[in-house]
Specification:
The two termini are 13 Å apart. The chain has a 22-stranded mixed beta sheet that branches. It has helices at 14-17, 64-68, 103-110, 149-163, 258-266, 304-316; strands spanning 6-8, 25-27, 32-34, 55-59, 75-83, 86-92, 120-126, 133-139, 169-170, 173-175, 178-184, 190-193, 219-223, 226-234, 238-245, 276-284, 287-294, 298-300, 323-328, 331-337, 344-348, 351-359. It has 6 helices and 22 strands. Pathway: Amino-acid biosynthesis; L-lysine biosynthesis via DAP pathway; DL-2,6-diaminopimelate from LL-2,6-diaminopimelate: step 1/1. GO terms for molecular function: diaminopimelate epimerase activity. Pfam families: DAP_epimerase.
Length: 360
């Protein structure tokens, strides 16, 4: 089966610059650079084998949104974004309240060897109950989470791309975790009002018994024979935050074998809806370091809701102040849990990677 693909990259991107050694042909009628790959001479023994011709396009005069406006039947146009390395395929789904692709297809597209590669697929959908837009997301394993913090920042930047908006912008977004309000600020970062944390054990949900006003704060959790001290928080999706094992004072997160321990937390019987797990190292009362195992995605470079949850947990355990920088493998986020309104505010980047299209 032959496969066709088109990728559009900003001219300023490293990928565009890397094409400088390749013979490029300027096609004025399309306002693009087109790279025509040379068909190699091969001796093919398999009669079903077909060579693939691929083009890479870098926009010259046309805007990224015009690429996404294309309406060829049978093709899915998308944009690839990342928030601190937590990467997503963004799809314009404003004309329908149902996702354009199935969760099974989303799982295929997220595969980093046989697909586009991503931690999830996000759909920009029509608003509900007076909101500007609705957001749905499929994880890389095909499951559907309630919300994604890095994803909502990418969502906001993608909407600005679709609507050709510039400067400071704010949107109301309906999600499975409730109303979320991201704002693109003057420096291009996105600040998100993530709402109030959920702390009641049964609402997170966790089967761990509440030990402080029905909150689960620094409780003991047996994971494969090791006792961990955990605090549980929901940001509309469940999180289990740990700073230490029993008898230790502070994790050294770089030493963790995350691929081994992460799934044991995610599928632990104490978490009926599974859980995201944040492993946190305290550097100071305003500076934390985290590695994360995400429910449905595994080890990722960043998790926005998890970063919010860990600051709440750090405050509840008396380890940190309400305004913290959190270092993640993909970079830092700034998190503030405001006492006056009990809301959590997350500020961080969201970056476009490329636009693309593929058959569906």
């Amino acid at each position: 089966m032959a496969i066709a693909a088109t990728i559009s990259l900003p001219l300023t991107s490293p990928s565009r610059r890397s094409l400088s050694s390749v013979n490029l042909v300027r096609t004025h009628s399309f306002s693009t650079f087109q790279l025509n790959l040379i068909r190699p001479k091969l001796t093919v023994k398999n009669p079903n084998f077909r060579l693939v011709r691929m083009s890479i396009e870098a926009p010259v005069q046309s805007s990224p949104s015009s690429f996404l406006d294309r309406k060829e039947s049978g093709f899915l146009h998308f944009a690839k974004y990342h928030g601190l390395g937590n990467d997503f395929i963004l799809i314009d789904n404003r004309d329908s309240s149902e996702p354009r692709i199935t969760s099974e297809r989303a799982e295929q597209l997220c595969d980093r060897n046989f697909g586009i590669g991503a931690d999830g697929v996000i759909f920009v959908m029509p608003g509900i109950n007076g909101t500007d837009y609705s957001m749905r997301i499929f994880n890389s394993d095909g499951s559907e989470p309630e919300m994604c913090g890095n994803g909502i920042r990418c969502f906001a930047k993608f909407v600005a791309q679709l609507e050709s908006l510039h400067g400071r912008q704010s949107f109301t977004i309906h999600t499975g975790a409730g109303l979320i309000v991201p704002e693109i600020v003057d420096d291009g970062n996105v600040r998100v009002d993530m709402g109030e944390p959920i702390l009641k054990a049964s609402d997170i949900p966790t089967r761990l018994p509440g030990n402080k006003d029905n909150y689960v704060v620094k409780s003991e959790l047996d994971v494969d024979g090791v006792i961990w001290n955990v605090t549980c928080v929901s940001m509309g999706n469940p999180h289990c935050v740990t700073f230490s094992t029993k008898g230790s004072q502070n994790l050294q997160v770089d030493e963790l074998k995350l691929d081994e321990i992460g799934p044991k937390f995610e599928h632990h019987e104490m978490f009926p809806a599974r859980t995201n797990t944040e492993f946190v190292q305290v550097l100071s009362r305003s500076h934390l370091k985290m590695r994360v195992w995400e429910r449905g995605a595994g080890a990722t470079l960043a998790c926005g809701t998890g970063t919010c949850a860990l600051v709440v947990a750090a405050v509840l355990e008396g380890r940190a102040e309400r305004n913290c920088r959190v270092d993640l493998p993909g970079g830092p986020l700034q998190i503030e849990w405001r006492e006056e309104d009990n809301h959590i505010y997350m500020t961080g980047p969201a970056e476009a990677v490329f636009n693309g299209s593929l058959p569906i």
